[in-house]
Backbone:
């Protein structure tokens, strides 16, 4: 293991302290706990609160999207570990303005268990909580069993659209409707070519050959759907979209947004090579791209690889996607619709 860290067990705490220092104009901690991140500009005038949570190691997911136009708070766990229900409750209390709180998080058993418990505890304190569990990774479960799918980079679109709706002043039921609508319109497929080293473990989480790739691998190193020799980028993108596009399906005449997401150790130049082919394939199928996002949106420490998310838009989702937002890791000015 070669990393710029101090003691492995201090890695997450030191990272969070550094993040709060660097972005003190936008972020603060709730209840004096650096694992409970909240916006500094939460309005007490009354807005539905949006909270997320998850393990460290995925920046800018999850806490990187706390800010105006997106999320209001995030509970943070250890590397690839769910945050506790108590920490999610502290975030919930800090962001509640009387209109309730929506939890948006990925479909992982620890998160589901702890956040369900946090919602129950919040209810005992007269805070209404609703939840949306994202799961758009087509490699993790077949069509027809979508409830078993993992939530990966495509959750970005749920944060963006639900966050924009909450900023408009919509009530909790309406914000949840938009989260569900956005989540149902996105599909993701990933590929990896190198493992990740969790600091407290100190060795690779899996082994893959120098000349191999794995299609469909998850952001914690979960098994994919096919391992084989590394192929040229165009062939990899083609294989991924061949599995992704029929799943919704995405059809000629559709308008979409595309997210090409690096997993932590993939140069942005390579991501643009991948996007180039994805755009070519979509154009050939009569699918138009309204907005492309290329970069790191949901990483896995130093894993080399990328994912492609395709988000089908209608007028409502397009307007919400186009709305401005500003967080420490994401800034978007109003897009033309």
Residues:
């Amino acid at each position: 293991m070669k990393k710029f860290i101090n003691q492995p067990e201090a890695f997450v705490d030191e990272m969070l302290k550094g993040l709060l220092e660097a972005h003190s104009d936008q972020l603060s901690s709730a209840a004096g706990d650096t694992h409970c991140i909240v916006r500094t500009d939460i309005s007490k005038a009354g807005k539905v609160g949006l909270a997320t949570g998850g393990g460290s190691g995925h920046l800018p997911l999850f806490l990187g999207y706390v800010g105006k136009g997106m999320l209001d708070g995030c509970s943070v766990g250890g590397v690839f570990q769910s945050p506790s229900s108590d920490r999610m409750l502290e975030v919930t209390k800090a962001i509640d303005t009387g209109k309730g709180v929506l939890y948006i998080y990925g479909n992982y058993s620890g998160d589901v268990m702890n956040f369900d418990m946090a919602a129950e505890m919040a209810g005992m304190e007269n805070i209404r909580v609703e939840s949306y569990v994202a799961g758009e990774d087509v490699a993790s479960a077949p069509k027809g069993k979508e409830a078993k799918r993992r939530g990966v980079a495509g959750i970005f679109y749920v944060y963006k659209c639900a966050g924009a709706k909450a900023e408009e002043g919509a009530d909790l039921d309406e914000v949840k409707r938009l989260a569900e609508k956005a989540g149902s319109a996105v599909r993701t497929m990933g590929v990896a070519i190198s493992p990740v080293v969790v600091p407290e473990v100190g060795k690779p989480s899996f082994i893959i050959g120098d000349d191999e790739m794995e299609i469909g691998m998850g952001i914690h190193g979960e098994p994919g759907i096919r391992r084989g020799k590394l192929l040229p980028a165009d062939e990899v993108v083609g294989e991924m979209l061949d599995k992704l596009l029929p799943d919704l399906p995405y059809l000629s005449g559709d308008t979409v947004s595309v997210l090409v997401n690096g997993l932590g150790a993939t140069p942005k130049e390579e991501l643009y090579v991948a996007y180039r082919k994805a755009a070519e394939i979509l154009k050939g199928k009569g699918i138009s791209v309204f907005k492309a996002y290329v970069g790191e949106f949901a990483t896995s420490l130093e894993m080399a690889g990328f994912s492609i998310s395709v988000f089908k838009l209608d007028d409502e989702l397009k307007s919400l996607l186009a709305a401005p937002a500003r967080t420490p890791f994401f800034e978007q000015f109003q897009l033309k619709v």
In short: The first strand starts at residue 27 and ends at 30. Helices lie at 11-22, 85-95, 109-124, 155-167, 172-184, 233-244, 268-284, 315-322. The chain has a mean pLDDT of 97.
